[in-house]
Each structure stands twice: as C-alpha cells, then as structure tokens.
Amino acid sequence: MELIHLRILLALKRRGTLNAAAEELHLTQSALSHQMKNLEQRLKVVLWRKQGRTLVLTQAGRYLSEVAESVIATVTSAEQHLNLLAVGKTGQLTIGIDCHACYEWFRTILQPYLQAWPDLAIEVTSRYRFNAFEAIRQYKLDAVLTSDPLFNGGLHYQPLFDFELVLIVAKTHQFAGLGEIEPADLQQETILTYPVARERLDMFRKVLQPVGIEAFAHVTVEETDIMLLLAASQRGVCLLPDWLLADQAKHPDVVSLRFKNLLLTKTMYLATRHEDVQLDYIQWLIGHAARTSATVRPVA
Predict the structure, then answer these.
(1) What pLDDT shows up at residue 104?
(2) What is the spatial distance between Cα 132 and Cα 143, in angstroms, rounded to a whole number?
(3) Cα–Cα distance between 289 and 105 in angstroms, integer?
(4) How many angstroms separate the CA atoms of 300 and 293, rounded?
(5) Which of 83, 191, 204, 292 could form a disulfide with 215 if both were Cys (CB 3.0 to 4.6 A apart)?
(6) Which H or E run contains 107?
(7) Going along the chain, which residue ranges are E strands?
(8) Which candidate, 293, 298, 279, places its Cα nearest to that of 85?
(9) How many CB atoms lie within 10 A of CB 294?
(10) Bridge pairing between strands 156-170 and 190-193
(11) Would you give the DSSP letter of residue 100?
(12) DSSP assigned state of 204
C-alpha cells in the first residue's frame, strides 16, 4: 500500500466521482482507476462500488479511508515540520556553555529568544564544557557560546561582541582606589577562579605567567555569585568579564580595576557547524546578541 492509494481514497470520499477525484489529484481517470484496481487485487477486497453516477465506499473502503485520514494527516504534518526545519523555522537547539560567566550574560537574552521562537525546543547545558567543540561535530550540541575559540576550520565562529576582563576586588581593598595596578601586585593575593585547568585561565596565562610570578594562593569557586561574595569579603580577587558589573547597584561592595599597559580584551563567539549558520533561528540569535550587547556594558 502506498500513500497515493490513501490519497485517492480520501479524494473519492470527498468528491464522490472518479472524474472529480482525478482532477483533485492531477491524475487521469484511467491512472486513478488502475491504481485502485491493483490495490483491490492485492488486498482481495472491494473498496468502492458505483451507485448511479457516484462512487460509494464499501465497508472495507470506509475503514481504509479512516486509516488514510490519520496517516495522511501525520505525513502532512511531518512534511510541514521538515519544510520548517529546512528553512530554520523550527527544530531543536542545544546550546553548550563553554565558560562559567557566559551563563550570566546568556540569561539577559534568553527570555526574548524563547518568546521569539515558541516552536523551537531549546536546551542550555554545560555538560560538554571541556569538549564542547567535539560535541558539536558529533551532533550532541548545535552551538556553543565561547570566548576561547579553536580556529581550525572545523566549525564556524560568529563573533557576537567584544568585552574586557577586569580585576574585581572589594570596595575596601587596598587596591580599590588605584584604578590600575601591576600584575606583580597580585603576588600576595588569593586568586579566585572557576574550577578550570590553569592553562585555560586568563589570570594565569595572560596576567601572572608572562611576568613570572605566582599568587599567594589559588581558590576555585563553582558559582559566579559566590566568587563575587568572596571578593567583596576580601577573601580573594578575581578576573571576570566587565559586563558582570554592568549594574553596579547589584554589586555595591566590589569595584573593577585594570592592569597597567595590559588590556585584556576578548570576543564572545557562537560556534556552530558550517551547514547550520544560515538557519533562521541561528541568525536571529546572532542578531539578537549583537543588538543587546550594549545592555551588558558596564556603566562608566
């Protein structure tokens, strides 16, 4: 049994005559009649009988037409869904977060994105934080927010916005009124970082290691809010994106500092497979992130 047989039965049920059904399906009467005779022979049942100028479905025909309504509705729905997938109107988007602080920024744009794409299934995960780029290639993730791209040609990296890393200290810290400090000034400080390998931490690879110094202590912290609370209590200092202090009223007990002659600028990227870049919901996310990036800039 093929879909054309079910479509013919439904057309006959709706239109009542062979000619009208053939016109609806853009078939000749002989082709339609031939299709159904072959089906009746294979099924060993009669599906319709003539009654005057019309065709009436038999009990077997009525039963099969009810099956046809369900099957054709499912197939039509699947075709429509696949068409939407093809043009990026719906689907599933699993976004990996490659950096802890990215969560803080992504929260600012997630609600408008969910509202704009109600038919898109969205999952945000840090499950593949240490192998996110391989997870995209294996189709376990569809996109990754990252500020540490691996430009090896395997993925497409779309820049979203630039930001600066700043040193965050307590408002009562001895550095608080300086504005700028030297990396060597951190030699007696406790460094607060996320639980990430040192070779991936900008505090070590860009600030401390280039000048050959080691901090007094190194403490890892899972959550950004806890890290900021520890910094505010003078339990350590941390290097974080400047957007975290965009609303100073939320963090009145800490201030940000820069390093003298060391500008720590980075770019936030959305990494995707090359074939997915032009999907509508990917393009919308890219544009939305660019449009709203100003809202996460710190107040001067």
Answers:
(1) 75
(2) 9
(3) 10
(4) 15
(5) 191
(6) helix 102-116
(7) 48-51, 54-57, 91-97, 120-125, 143-146, 156-170, 180-181, 190-193, 217-220, 237-241, 254-259, 265-272
(8) 279
(9) 9
(10) unpaired
(11) T
(12) I
